Amino acid sequence: MAAGIFGFIFYIFSLIWSLIVALIGRIYCWIWFNILSVNMVKYDKRIEEHKLELFADLADFKEDTEVYPITPVVQQSRSPSRRKQQTAVDDKFTILEIGVGWGGNFRYFPEGSDIIAVEPTFPKERFAEYLAMIHSHGHGVQISKVVATDPEDLSQVETETADVVVCTKVLSNVRNVDQVLQEIRRVLKTGGRFYFMEHVFQPERSFTHYTQRLLNPLQVKFGDNCHLTRETWKNIDKAGFAEVRYKRFSAYKMPSIIRPHLMGTATK
Ligand SMILES: C[S@@+](CC[C@H](N)C(=O)[O-])C[C@H]1O[C@@H](n2cnc3c(N)ncnc32)[C@H](O)[C@@H]1O
Questions:
Q1: Second label for 158, Cα 20 to 30 Å away, from 74, 202, 210, 235?
Q2: 80: CA distance to ligand 1 center in Å?
């Protein structure tokens, strides 16, 4: 009798506990998403004009790759008598984005793009909810895959998969910029393009230069490994891309320590 009562209490307790865990999970997911998106929306508004400039030619690039696929897919006929190689068109335009966050870049992507989302900081077990949230900002793109790893190791993504890799406001946080760039080069198709925008160090001696140097250790420690003194253009220059184009600019609406910015493209 006593065992039965205890069993019943234990059953009710586990039901309540599962409910609490599910609720906390949802709340955690909601908080994470909303804090990130509120901050990101603010940041994004301030640099919107620069993002528009960065992605201005992306739709044209997509159209060019549809007409002249950057890596033609070579297919073999099944029939042994007709086993001559044929070139087919890979009709998916794949964008791999590192540090997708709340999906704020999707609105700059051509409609119909296929997205591989890399987002290491999101709690891995809550992907389904995360995806649903991201989808609500989908802007006509489809997320075909979410990769929950650090971008230094994208081994879940096959070599030469992406027509385009996008990475904005992320390289200042990663552990190893050079390793991430090598992974980006590996997953890009030959002729594919890497679009980037980052806040960077101001190498010219100025008030900003000295404040960045002074505050960098604090920012790294308390700001999710965000570095203020990275000269990211140097890493990109030596990463082995066939063609690199960038400019440094001042994101004049941002606070002075993250005002110096870099944006551009690198083609494999
Ligand atoms: C400042 S937000 C930028 C979001 C988005 N790329 C944009 O431009 O709106 C930085 C993003 O990078 C992610 N992130 C943080 N540390 C990272 C790391 N070490 N590697 C890859 N992504 C990281 C964060 O979770 C967040 O989604």
A1: 235
A2: 49
In angstroms, the CA 129 to CA 29 distance is 8
Select from 32, 43, 121 the residue to mutate for testing ligand 1; criterion: most ligand atoms less than 8 Å from CB: 121
Cβ neighbours of residue 77 closer than 8 Å, sequence gap 6 or more = 83, 84, 86
User: For position 118, what pLDDT does the model report?
Assistant: 92
Mutate to test the pocket of ligand 1, among 137, 170, 199 (most ligand atoms within 8 A of CB): 170
**Residues 68-106 pLDDT 10s:** 777 665 555 555 444 444 444 467 899 999 998 878 899
The band of 258, judged by pLDDT with boundaries at 50, 70 and 90, is very high
